[in-house]
Amino acid sequence: MSQLSEGDDFRCNARKLLVVKDLNCMVNEMKRILVHIQNIDEAAFSVKYGRLLEITKIEVLNPAIKALINFWDPDYRCFSFGNVDLCPTVEEYGMLMEFPKHLHKVYFPLRSDKVIPELSKLLKIPYLSRFLEKNASGLKWKFLEVELERKKSQYGSMLERDRLIALGIYGLVLFPSLTGVLSLEAGAAFVEYENTHVNPITAILAETFLTLNHFRKTGKGAMRCCTKLLYIWMVSHIESKRLIFNNFLWFNQKPLKLVEEEEWRSLGDQSWMKKLQESPSSNFSWKAPGSNRLMS
Fold first, then answer.
1. What is the CA radius of gyration of the chain?
2. Does the predicted model carry a pTM greater than 0.90?
3. Is the pLDDT of residue 289 over 70?
């Protein structure tokens, strides 16, 4: 469940931080994945990769994220809404993603020079290094898309096809970097999950906190974290007229889409700021839907 506590007068220091005015959520990267998930067995994919496909399909309301960032306190490492403090936790993100290999342990990233050879083995793509960016910081997705199309038409390549799609989600959604580029860090997290079943949730949260701190200090930039998870986490704690979640079954997105259309679609940056700033503490849920599952 989220951390919640009573605020104090010293928190006004956070008001001196820069207001976020220039934000790139990089949500268009979703389209680069969705075109490839048609006609795949989503149930079988979920057995291995949890809710990766569902998180990819989420449409993020940019004004909501932009407003939310302005309530992040980099000193306290939480969102401060008046006298309510909330912070996403490993348990909540774990419920959102439902990775079947739920092994949490200290995450030691794979050495960068080991990532490409390991990916080449998993994907069965020889000479994978030819798809690297000029500065060798990551793999170009447009070249991997060609390999993905080839895998789709090859008999017996279903495993490598699914791995390519999962890798694309890791690099473009969970750990985004440059547009159209899968960073080596994202590749390392994917390799660790495939080979040793290390749950990437802690790494996702770490990137989220680092990104939020950066924005509060600079006031601009591109979101180098999983915006979709942060958005779903946010709406799970904000009261709405219509019930969005049923026992945290967020992947049924119809209720969320209805609330977005009926209540939130017309809200701009300032309206979302006002909504979050003026909402009484009773409008924030300290307990995420479905958090009783953590106790079972």
1. 19
2. no
3. no
> What one-character-per-residue DSSP string does the chain give?
--------GGGGGGGGSPPP-EEE--TTHHHHHHTT-TTS-HHHHHHHHTTHHHHHHPPP-HHHHHHHHTTEETTTTEEEETTEEE---HHHHHHHH--SS-B-----PPPHHHHHHHHHHHHT-TTGGGGB-TTSSEEEHHHHHHHHHHHHHSTT-HHHHHHHHHHHHIIIIIS--STTEEEHHHHHHHHHHHHH-B-THHHHHHHHHHHHHHHHHHSEEE--S-HHHHHHHHHTSB--SS---STT-TT--HHHHHHIIIIITT--HHHHHHHHHHS-GGGB-SS-TTGGGGG-
Report the C-alpha gap between 162 and 148 in whole angstroms.
Answer: 9
Phi first, then psi, for residue 291 (nearest 5°) are -70, -15
Find the length of the chain. Answer: 296
> What confidence tens digit (pLDDT) does each residue in 86-137 have?
899 988 898 888 888 656 666 677 888 899 999 999 999 999 999 998 888 8
Using one digit for the tens of pLDDT, what is the confidence trace for 261-288? 878 888 888 898 888 887 777 777 766 6
> Where in the chain are the domains?
1-25+60-104+199-290, 105-197
pLDDT bin (cut points 50, 70, 90) of residue 139 is very high
Structure tokens at 93: 């993100």
Say how far apart CA 178 and CA 204 lie, in whole Å: 17
